[in-house]
Design goal:
This protein is mainly alpha-helical. The chain is about 70% helix and about 0% strand. It is built from 40 helices and 2 strands. The protein has a two-stranded antiparallel ribbon with strand order 1-2. α6 (about 115-130) runs antiparallel to α7, α18 runs antiparallel to α19 and α26 packs parallel to α28. The longest helix is centred in the first third of the chain and has 28 residues, at about 20-45. It is elongated and about 140 Å long. About 35% of the residues are buried. Plays a role in vesicular protein sorting. It holds the Pfam family Vps35. It is found in: Membrane. Belongs to the VPS35 family.
């Protein structure tokens, strides 16, 4: 070896070398290995075995350094490993051509330096195993024993890692011939576990190998942290043993539970090192099959209780439980012992939480994993969900809930909601509302919205009053939480959740009238006190729910089904709700009173229909009589009144007169004329055939409204004519007069009113006068549809009539009217 190389190995051995010096040193060592490797490859080509071994010894000698950090040492080892594999291949070929593997194994033991000697011994041992000249068991025991000569943590752990790599494909297994020469699976197990134990001891000692010198406390802490991180990364070298052990086909569940697991757990527990216990437990869980863990579940969980108090139990349990969740979903072998499995986990978690100081968030994460275990075992066991929720509630009750805790609980609850596509199941979980109420308002709103979305998506009907009450308890936050209308996000988020809540109300009903009425009463109770902002949204689905109930009651009445609820009870409840709404949203109340009147009419409740119409008219008179929308609102009343075909003459007459009175009070004359003309139709209604529901004997029943008042009819039309001809500007007045003429012709055709030919011709003369009066205004465009309208009347009342009727209509001055507009 050169003096320069000798100086490198004699440097002060410290892992506290600055980064630049570490990089420089690493590169120098790599250069030395590369130079020796170059010479070695030349000797390989020349098949000079002794010189090959000498140059290999020079390369391996660089691994004697203690000046490199574990991370840089690993890089140096990896750089050298490729060259060592070339040497192994060369020696293997030489043995096949006559070189004695046993002599080679003896020769390399005369190497002067310990590190090169052991690396060469492992390489020669690997070649010797291939020859099958010596029992594999003896070679493995010898190599394992020889490696104990290196007790330096870094050098020793990499040496044993090299041993693991060189023999991993040569270990006896169930597929190999079971003989003294070839060895048995037990030999492989003993070798791997022994190597694992020794490597773990070296790995743990690695944390104590660094002198801190004159560093400050902050410097020592920093270096300790960095070394701890590098040491953790080297855990993979130790874990390789467990991975190889799990790959042995001869390791059955019985062998694992009786011989393998006890030894592994004893070493992991006995080392009492936080980093080692955390890493090796996770590697063991990942390496061995899930069936093995399921068979040894109690042993595995009990061992967690004996670990170092600082070990992160949460990570270990989470890894184990998540693996088993996947296993249970794809393998139903655990069905017969599902309760035992869940109980084993729950009892273990309970014991661990009592013995060890765990963070609240960690415990909640563990409970969430337990919940997933319950789902994967049997989704129908809601008692598993209830147990987890109760445990979380006991943990959080009377505690200040941190944001991390809140997030975990919210995720837990959301997983439950998504897993059960039926809100009926969810409301059976007793501890659901208790746990939800512990969360911040924002999280409660999120969960409530998820519940509503669940109902809408699954279209679940809730028809039991007790279950509906529980549902409202779960979404109560949406009904009473404070509203900040100044928040920019308020409008979109609030309206979305209110819209969803309005939709979900339609899923609360029953075919049983008694139950449906109780549901409606509960809806009133829960929604009626939610404030005016929310009530404006809820009022429509709430009222229509009541009207839907009225329709069902009517159907049951036709079928002669008995029920104790009266129509008056129902409509009194609806009326009370709407009356409370008048002061806040009169327009909404107005529209719903009209809707309710129509519903009452369909149920043949003439008094109820009359009262609802009267209330709508009262609202109009008190609120809308001076507004721009008065004409539109009044026409809503008029059109609704026309649909009430089961209301009595007395009630109808009063309501018709009220409509006519309010028509005269409209602000704009054009609106007055239109409304009064329309009201004239109230005072002569033809007989009508009212089609009944198909449930009712499938026959039509004739119902005649005996209401005919010529005086009021003619009075309305005359009033409309006066307003149209004198108070409305041309040409709008002409259009209005044509509309009145059309109505007069309808009444004239019945031949039962005082609207006669003289009355109609007088109106026609008035139309002609209005037109001729404005003939001198060239800038005025006469209505283009006037002539079209006249021609339509001629075709309807003259050309299509026959006999006496045609003669009567010929007396009407249609031709004179037509000539005026040609």
């Amino acid at each position: 070896m050169s003096s320069k190389g000798s100086d490198l190995t004699k440097r002060k051995e410290s892992v506290l070398t600055p980064r630049i010096e570490q990089e420089t040193l690493l590169q120098e060592l790599k250069d030395k290995i590369q130079r020796s490797a170059f010479d070695m490859r030349k000797f390989l080509e020349d098949e000079q075995t002794i010189l090959v071994l000498i140059k290999t010894t020079e390369m391996i000698s660089e691994l004697r350094t203690s000046a490199l950090s574990p991370k840089n040492y690993f890089e140096l080892y990896s750089f050298l490993l490729n060259e060592l594999r070339n040497v192994e291949s060369y020696l293997d070929e030489q043995v096949k051509t006559g070189l004695s593997a046993q002599e080679l194994y003896k020769v390399v033991q005369f190497t002067g330096q310990v590190i090169p000697r052991l690396y060469l011994l492992i390489t020669a041992g690997s070649v010797l195993i291939n020859t099958e000249e010596v029992p594999i068991k003896d070679i493995l025991q010898d190599l394992n024993k020889m490696c104990r000569g290196i007790q330096h943590p870094t050098r020793g752990i990499f040496l044993r890692y090299y041993l693991t790599q060189m023999v991993k494909d040569k270990l006896p297994d169930i597929t190999t011939q079971n003989s003294e020469m070839h060895g048995t699976v037990e030999d492989s197990i003993n070798f791997i576990i022994s190597n694992f134990i020794e490597m773990n001891k070296l790995w743990i000692r690695m944390q104590h190998q660094t002198p801190f010198g004159n560093l400050s406390e902050i410097g020592k802490k920093y270096v300790h942290t960095m070394l701890g991180k590098e040491r953790t990364e080297l855990g993979m070298l130790v874990g390789t043993n467990l991975s190889r052990l799990a790959q042995l086909e001869g390791v059955t569940v019985e062998i694992y539970s009786q011989n393998v697991l006890p030894l592994i757990l004893h070493q992991i527990i006995d080392c009492n090192d936080k980093i080692a216990q955390e890493y090796l437990f996770v590697v063991m869980i990942q390496a061995f099959p899930d069936e093995f863990h399921l068979e040894t579940l109690e042993t595995l969980l009990k061992s967690l209780e004996e670990l170092n108090p600082n070990v992160d139990i949460k990570e270990i349990l989470q890894e184990l439980m998540q693996r088993l969740v996947i296993y249970f979903k794809t393998n139903r072998a655990a069905e017969n012992q599902e309760h035992k499995i869940f109980t084993t986990f729950s009892d273990s978690i309970s014991r661990i939480s009592q013995k060890k100081v765990l963070k609240q968030t960690d415990l909640l994460i563990i409970l969430r994993c337990l919940l997933q275990i319950g789902f994967s075992l049997n989704l129908n066991r809601i008692d598993y969900v209830d147990y987890v929720f109760q445990s979380a509630f006991r943990l959080l009750n009377n505690e200040i809930i941190k944001q991390d805790d809140s997030n975990v609980v919210t995720q837990m609850i959301q997983e439950v909601i998504q897993s059960y596509n039926n809100v009926i199941v969810l409301i059976e979980i007793e501890s659901f509302p208790h746990l939800t109420n512990l969360l911040p308002l924002a999280e409660q709103r999120k969960i409530a919205n998820n519940l509503i979305e669940n109902v809408l998506k699954s279209q679940t009907i809730i028809e039991e009053i007790e279950k509906l009450q529980r549902f409202f308890n779960l979404i109560q936050i949406l009904l009473n939480h404070p509203i900040n209308q100044n928040d920019l996000q308020f409008d979109s988020d609030f309206q979305k959740e209110q819209s969803a809540l309005c939709k979900v109300i339609h899923f609360f009903y029953s075919d049983d009238i008694e139950k449906y009425f109780l549901i409606f009463q509960l809806l009133i109770k829960e929604l009626n006190g939610t404030g005016k902002v929310r009530m404006k949204n809820y009022i429509f689905p709430l009222i229509f729910s009541g009207l839907k109930l009225a329709q069902k009651m009517r159907e049951n009445e036709r079928n002669k089904s008995e029920f104790s609820i009266s129509f008056n009870q129902l409509f009194d409840s609806i009326s009370t709700i709407l009356e409370n709404l008048i002061n806040f949203f009169p327009e909404v109340a107005f529209k719903l009173f009209l809707q309710t009147a129509q519903a009452a009419n369909k149920c043949r409740l003439e008094k109820v229909a009359y009262e609802m119409m009267l209330k709508a008219i009262t609202i109009y008179g008190d609120v809308f009589s001076l507004r721009e929308t008065q004409f539109k609102m009044l026409f809503s009343i008029i059109s609704t009144l026309f649909t009430l075909n089961y209301i009595g003459n007395e009630y109808f007459s009063f309501l018709a007169v009220q409509c006519a009175i309010h028509s005269k009070k409209l602000v704009q004359p054009i609106h007055q004329a239109k409304a009064i003309c329309c009201c004239s139709r109230f005072f002569y209604l033809q007989d009508s055939l009212i089609p009944t529901n198909s449930l009712e004997n499938s026959q039509n029943q004739k119902r005649s409204i005996q209401f005919h008042d010529d005086k009021k009819l003619v009075g309305c039309l005359s009033k409309a004519i006066r307003i149209a001809s004198s108070s409305i500007e041309f040409p709008v007045s002409l259009e209005s007069l044509f509309e009145i003429l059309d109505v007069c012709l309808i009444f004239f055709e019945t031949q039962k009113t005082n609207i006669n030919i003289e009355y109609i011709n007088t109106l026609i003369e008035l139309i002609i006068q209005v037109k001729e009066k404005n003939q001198s205004q060239p800038q005025v465009l006469f209505p283009q549809n006037s002539l079209v309208f006249i021609n339509q009347m001629i075709r309807k009342f003259i050309k299509k009539k026959k006999g006496e009727k045609k003669e009567i209509y010929l007396e009407i001055n249609f031709q004179k009217l037509k000539k005026t507009f040609n």
